[in-house]
Design brief:
InterPro entries: ComplexI_NDUFA9_subunit, DUF2867, NAD(P)-bd_dom, NAD(P)-bd_dom_sf. Pfam families: DUF2867, NAD_binding_10. One of its GO terms (molecular function) is protein-containing complex binding. The structure is a single chain. By secondary structure, the chain is α/β, with parallel strands linked by helices. A 7-stranded parallel sheet has the order 3-2-1-4-5-6-11, with helices on both faces. The chain is 34% helix and 19% strand. The longest helix has 19 residues. It folds into 2 domains: 319 residues, Rossmann fold; 151 residues, Alpha-D-Glucose-1,6-Bisphosphate, Chain A, domain 4 (2-Layer Sandwich), CATH 3.30.530.20. Helix 11 packs across helix 14.
Length: 511
């Protein structure tokens, strides 16, 4: 069945099919923008090579069968050069937002490697999405790095389009989620003075439209373009306008001057799902006024006849997608910086060492489909079926220690794909109807997985639910951690299994 054109669906871009199928490469394809750009390029008639370090994370995407997956690390010269062979346009959507110290050096090295590889592979254009920044000396580290990456790509010898955007408005955007939760959860708040700085937000639909259109720029065009929506607002005005669009009372917002970016980011991380390491660069960027100085992009990618999407309409569309559980990608689509990436202990390449397991199996008087439906909807609003207080405390402890905590929730309330975030877990493997494996991204002294599987039971119409918690400790601290929490496994994991069993049996029609 042909996939519906995304121009028909609110947040997505409108564009016309390309006359020939040209090959474009997209990096950052597992991230927020990259995951949305791929289907737009396909709809425009391009052939897409999706570059990712782990292409298994692309499984389950609606467009996975229509692209060429290519496993490569953009920081590896040989791998990325091979990935760019035969490519006409390369989209560079990589950044280390919220990845901790030395992220500027990491961004610099990766951009230099990519630029050289693109030149050697004969790429005809690079397109990069950076951050809108004022022309001042003391930029935030995040904006300074985004600016430097743009300059590196422009100096590559390959014609380059650098698009600079401020706050992106769309369901799942980190900037949008931060504003959304601050507004919804705090009817009254004291805020830093940056709430009165001017910002020119832009709808994700228009960002995607500019990205797709940039592929057709003539070779003599190699420059930076500011992109923004039709309105310039303060953050205070954005929160008030969001409240109105969401049907909330007007918010009481009092600006104070004592909150530094660091304190502001900690405050944001306590109120919203956005963790402090990610909130801090976002907050630091808001310290500056970010307003477009030109609209030259319209010479090459004309504005749509109805104009760029206004703020209120962008918010309405985003809220509709959240309500309909139709959020294609989220800020949490990208992995947590520093999260473990070692292989599962059962994988052939595992190096061995101490390994602890908590394994539980139970018979369920429900079909495998009923049990799988419960497994696939774990986390988020539904929770974990056991001792809610213990999960909440663990989430708070993780949040305080710099982890994601439980507030990330889920992208979709009932369906999971490889790479999805589920509270402080990451989906590592999904075999529909059979197996769900979650990798822990919480802060623990070791590596941890939770594996859930379902199979036919001993009697017709029944199922066997198997639950395995796996922990590979790091050093003595990891050993002590396991033994300190082991006494609670019966309550937490045992209760979880009993709760899932009860839920599956409750939803099964009596014969």
């Amino acid at each position: 069945m042909a996939r519906a054109r995304r121009g028909e669906h609110g947040e997505h871009a409108d564009h016309h099919p390309a006359s020939v199928s040209r090959l474009v490469a997209v990096t950052g394809v597992t991230g927020y923008v990259g995951g949305r750009l791929v289907p737009e390029l396909l709809d425009a008639g391009f052939a897409v090579r999706a570059i990712a370090r782990d292409t298994s994370r692309l499984r389950g995407r609606p467009w996975a069968g229509e692209i060429e997956p290519f496993s490569a690390d953009a920081a590896d010269p040989d791998q990325i050069r091979a990935a760019l062979e035969g490519v006409e346009v390369a989209y560079y959507l990589i950044h280390s937002l919220g990845s901790g110290r030395r992220f500027e050096a990491r961004d610099r090295r990766t951009a230099l490697t990519f630029a050289q590889a693109a030149r050697e592979a004969g790429v005809q254009r690079i397109v990069y999405l950076g951050g809108l920044a004022p022309d001042v000396e003391n930029l935030s580290p995040h904006l300074e790095s985004r600016k430097e990456v743009g300059e590196i790509l422009l100096a590559s010898g390959v014609p380059t389009t650098v698009l600079r955007a401020a706050v992106i408005l769309g369901s799942g955007s980190a900037s949008f989620e931060m504003m959304r939760y601050l507004t919804e959860r705090l009817p009254a708040m004291t805020t830093p003075r940056w709430v009165d700085n001017r910002i020119q937000p832009i709808a994700v639909r228009d960002v995607l439209r500019y990205l797709v259109g940039s592929a057709d720029m003539p070779p003599e065009v190699s420059r930076t373009f500011d992109i923004g929506g039709p309105e310039v607002l303060t953050y205070r005005e954005m929160m008030q306008r969001y409240a109105a669009a969401a049907g909330l009372p007007r918010r009481i917002i009092i600006g104070v001057g004592v909150l530094t970016p660091r304190l502001s980011s900690l405050w944001v991380s306590l109120v919203t799902p956005v963790p402090a390491p990610l909130a801090r660069p976002l907050v630091e960027s808001l310290v500056h006024e970010v307003v477009c100085h030109e609209h030259d992009i319209a010479r090459h990618v004309p504005d749509p006849p109805e104009g760029l999407l206004p703020f209120d309409e962008a918010v309405r569309l985003a809220l509709q997608r959240i309500q309909d559980a139709d959020v294609a990608t989220r800020w949490s689509s990208a992995s947590v910086p520093g999260a473990p990436s070692d292989p599962l202990p059962s994988d052939p390449g595992w190096a061995g060492g101490s390994l602890y397991r908590d394994e539980r199996t139970t018979q369920v008087d429900a079909s495998t489909d009923a049990v799988w439906s419960v497994l696939e909807s774990l986390g988020g609003e539904r929770g974990w079926y056991s001792w809610p207080l213990a999960w909440q405390v663990r989430g708070i402890v993780d949040r305080i220690s710099g982890g994601p905590g439980l507030r990330r929730g889920r992208r979709d309330p009932s369906r999971l794909m490889v790479g999805d975030a589920v509270d402080f877990w990451r989906v590592e493997e999904v075999e529909p109807g059979q197996l769900l494996r979650l990798r822990a991204e919480m802060r623990v002294p070791g590596l941890a997985w939770l594996e859930l599987s379902v199979s036919e039971g001993e009697r017709p119409g029944t199922s066997e639910l198997r639950q395995v918690a796996i922990f590979h400790p790091h050093g003595l601290v990891g050993q002590l951690y396991w033994w300190s929490v082991a006494p609670f496994h019966g309550v937490v994991f045992g209760g979880m299994q009993r709760g899932m069993k009860a839920e599956a049996e409750l939803t099964t029609e009596p014969s």
